Amino acid sequence: MKSIHPQFITDDKGRKLSVVLSIKEFKTLLKELEGTSRSIKLKGEENEPSKEEILAGIAQGLKEVKLIRAGKLKTKSIQQLLDEL
User: Fold this and answer.
1) How far apart (Å, rounded) are the C-alpha atoms in residues 34 and 78?
2) Residue of higher predicted confidence among 85 and 58
3) How far apart (Å, rounded) are the C-alpha atoms in residues 5 and 23?
4) 22-74 pLDDT, tens digit each
5) What string of DSSP letters covers 44-58?
6) Cβ atoms within 10 A of the Cβ of 30, count?
7) Longest CA pairwise span in the chain (Å)
8) What per-residue confidence (pLDDT) applies to 31?
């Protein structure tokens, strides 16, 4: 990013209230923000599970709880669960 040179408007106690940028600097910041936003959305869309995947995960979890309660499946420690992630 190119360096920007902000100017601040302050109150009588010196607290910053507003910032002033040149139009060129402002447009540069907007372009960078739009690119970042687009990038974040694309990354998020790749990792978003579908409704069916979420429901299948919940169903699988319920099956495991039933098996644990019936004594047919051994429980896992917190560390084992974290290691799976």
Assistant:
1) 40
2) 58
3) 11
4) 999 888 888 888 877 666 665 555 667 788 988 998 998 888 888 888 888 88
5) HHHHPPPHHHHHHHH
6) 10
7) 72
8) 85
Distance CA 84, CA 65 (A): 17
Spell out the residues 6+ positions from residue 1 whose beta carbon is closer than 8 angstroms to its own.
28, 32
Reference 84, options 70, 55, 64; nearest CA is 64
Which segments within 1-85 are labelled E, that is strand? 7-10, 16-20
74, two tokens: 């051994």
3-class secondary-structure state, position 76: coil
pTM higher than 0.70 for the full model?
no
65 backbone dihedrals φ, ψ, rounded to 5°: -60, -45
d(CA 84, CA 75) in angstroms, rounded, equals: 14
